[in-house]
Amino acid sequence: MSEEKVVVLNFWPSMFGARVIMALEEKEVKFEYKEEDVFGQKTDLLLQTNPINKKIPVLIHNGKPVCESNVILEYIDEVWKDDKTLGLLPSDPYQKSQCRFWADMIDKKL
Ligand SMILES: N[C@@H](CCC(=O)N[C@@H](CS)C(=O)NCC(=O)O)C(=O)O
């Protein structure tokens, strides 16, 4: 794909943001990083792109925002899929279930 513009709104200590950054790096997708101060003044960009939850991470792909880290991971996996890049999840159903278990653990415990 050419002419891609990918922006990530993040807060560096966030595990939710980290999983998005890792997925983009795994897929070798170039992106612009924008740090948000989620405990201070949220930017207009964050409020406009995630008006429901007002939380990071937000992925903005060619101007279209995607919110919620697990939703973002599925989006990344579907958009940047080609012969060179592996899927983010293993193909084996059992191994896949284990990845989902730990992702769910992070969602619930952090
Ligand atoms: N379920 C969300 C959780 C995101 C989340 O909790 N983000 C925190 C930072 S780690 C945040 O933006 N907090 C700001 C706030 O609660 O106002 C996801 O997976 O993306």
Automatic annotation (TrEMBL):
GO cellular component, one term: cytosol
InterPro entries: Glutathione_S-Trfase, Glutathione_S-Trfase_N, Omega/Tau-like, Thioredoxin-like_sf
SUPFAM superfamilies: Thioredoxin-like
Xref: CDD domains: GST_N_Tau
GO aspect biological process, one term: toxin catabolic process
Primary subcellular site in the record, as a coarse category: cytoplasm
Name of the top EC class for this enzyme: transferase
All residue ranges annotated as the GST N-terminal domain in the record: 4-84
Keywords for this protein: Cytoplasm, Detoxification, Transferase
GO molecular function: glutathione transferase activity
Enzyme Commission number, as recorded: 2.5.1.18
The keyword DNA damage is assigned to this record: no
Catalyzed reaction equations: RX + glutathione = an S-substituted glutathione + a halide anion + H(+)
Subcellular location: Cytoplasm, Cytosol
Function: Is involved in the conjugation of reduced glutathione to a wide number of exogenous and endogenous hydrophobic electrophiles.
Family listed: Belongs to the GST superfamily. Tau family.
Name of the protein this chain belongs to: Glutathione S-transferase
UniProt source species: Thlaspi arvense
